[in-house]
C-alpha cells in the first residue's frame, strides 16, 4: 500500500513538472524556407509572460531537428557572429521578448527535412523547472523578415 502511494506521488510530481506553461503566450512563430542541402535554420517568435513568476526559456525540441539551441547574433568588429546562450532567456512577469533576425533566435540544427514555404512545423519550447509549451512555426519564403510579418 505504502509503495503504491509513493508511486502515485511520483507520477503526480512528474505530471506537474512537465505541465504546459499556460502563462507564456507565443505570437507569430516562424522560420525561413531552407535551400537544398542546408541542415540549419533559425526560428523566430514573440514570447509574452502573462504570469506572476519569471520564466526561463532553456531550449526547444522537434521531431524534424536533431538539436535546437538558443542563440544570439551580434555584430563584432563589423561582422555578425552567433553565440549560444546556455543559460537561456528569462522573461520577467509581464515581459515580452522578441526572437528576430539579426538578434536572438532558436538555432535549428541537424534538420531532418527541408523547411518548405507554407509548412507548419510543430515545436516544443522547454522552460526551466520542466515546463513545456507546444507551438507551431510557419515556414515563410527565404527572404522573409520581421517587417513583412503579420501586417
Ligand atoms: Cu544561431
Describe the structure.
- It is a single chain.
- The protein has 151 residues and is mainly beta.
- The chain has a single domain (21-143), classed as Sandwich (Immunoglobulin-like).
- The protein is 11% helix and 50% strand.
- The protein has one helix and ten strands, in the order αββββββββββ.
- The protein has one helix spanning 2-17, and strands at 24-32, 40-49, 55-61, 65-76, 79-84, 89-91, 96-99, 104-111, 120-127, 132-140.
- Strands 1, 2, 3, 4, 5, 6, 7, 8, 9 and 10 form a ten-stranded mixed β-sheet that branches.
- A hairpin with a 4-residue loop joins strand 9 (120-127) and strand 10 (132-140).
- The N and C termini lie far apart (60 Å).
- The structure holds copper (II) ion.
- Copper (II) ion binds at residues 42, 71, 82, 105, 107.
Amino acid at each position: 500500500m505504502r509503495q503504491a502511494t509513493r508511486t502515485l506521488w511520483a507520477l503526480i510530481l512528474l505530471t506537474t513538472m512537465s505541465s504546459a506553461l499556460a502563462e507564456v503566450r507565443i505570437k507569430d512563430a516562424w522560420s525561413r524556407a531552407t535551400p537544398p542541402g542546408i541542415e540549419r535554420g533559425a526560428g523566430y517568435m514573440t514570447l509574452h509572460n502573462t504570469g506572476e513568476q519569471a520564466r526561463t526559456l532553456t531550449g526547444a525540441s522537434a521531431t524534424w531537428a536533431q538539436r535546437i539551441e538558443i542563440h544570439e547574433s551580434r555584430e563584432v568588429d563589423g561582422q555578425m557572429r552567433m553565440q549560444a546562450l546556455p543559460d537561456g532567456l528569462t522573461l520577467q512577469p509581464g515581459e515580452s521578448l522578441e526572437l528576430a533576425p539579426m538578434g536572438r533566435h532558436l538555432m535549428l540544427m541537424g534538420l531532418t527535412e527541408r523547411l518548405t514555404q507554407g509548412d507548419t512545423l510543430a515545436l516544443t519550447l522547454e522552460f526551466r523547472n520542466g515546463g513545456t509549451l507546444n507551438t507551431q512555426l510557419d515556414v515563410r519564403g527565404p527572404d522573409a523578415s520581421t517587417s513583412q510579418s503579420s501586417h
